[in-house]
Amino acid sequence: MSEPLTVEVVTAWLADSPFISFLNLTVESLDEKAQTVTMKMPMRPELERAAGTGQFHGGPIASFIDTVGDYAVAIVLKGGVPTINFRVDYLRPSVGTFLRGKATVRRLGRTVAVVDIDVTDDQGRLCAVGRGTYSAQVG
C-alpha cells in the first residue's frame, strides 16, 4: 500500500501546471479515505467579471470546479486524470477575497469517477455547484 498523499505533494502537482499556477490555487485539506479535497482560489483583478466589482468571472469559477474535482480523484489514484465532462450551476454572484471549493468523490469505478464540488465565498455562502466526470485511469 502506498503512502497517503500530503498537502505539500498535491501543492507541487498544482505548481506543474502553468494555468493552475496562474489561478494561484492552494490546497487547504485532503482526505484520501473520505475522497475529498478542499482548495482556495484568491480574487485577483484578472479574475473579475468587470473591473472593480470584486465579482469572480464564471470562467475562472468553472476552471476552479474542474480542477478541484480532478484532484479529488487524483489523490485516490495517485496521479492526474483527464476530465470527461463537467457542469456548473451558478447560484449567486461570487464576490469576496477568495472562493473555497470542496470536492467529494461520489463514485470511483473501474473507468469513470463522478465528483460533486461545492464553491463557497469568503463568507461561507454557497455560490456554485459542479459535478464532474473524470477518467478513473491515471494519464
TrEMBL record:
InterPro entries: HotDog_dom_sf, PAAI_dom, Thioestr_dom. Residues 56-128 form the Thioesterase domain. CDD domains: PaaI_thioesterase (cd03443). Pfam families: 4HBT. The keyword Hydrolase applies. GO terms for molecular function: fatty acyl-CoA hydrolase activity. Its EC number is 3.1.2.20. Keywords: Hydrolase. It catalyses: a fatty acyl-CoA + H2O = a fatty acid + CoA + H(+); a medium-chain fatty acyl-CoA + H2O = a medium-chain fatty acid + CoA + H(+); a long-chain fatty acyl-CoA + H2O = a long-chain fatty acid + CoA + H(+). Belongs to the YigI thioesterase family. PANTHER family: 1,4-DIHYDROXY-2-NAPHTHOYL-COA THIOESTERASE 1, MEDIUM_LONG-CHAIN ACYL-COA THIOESTERASE YIGI. NCBIfam families: unchar_dom_1. This is Medium/long-chain acyl-CoA thioesterase YigI.
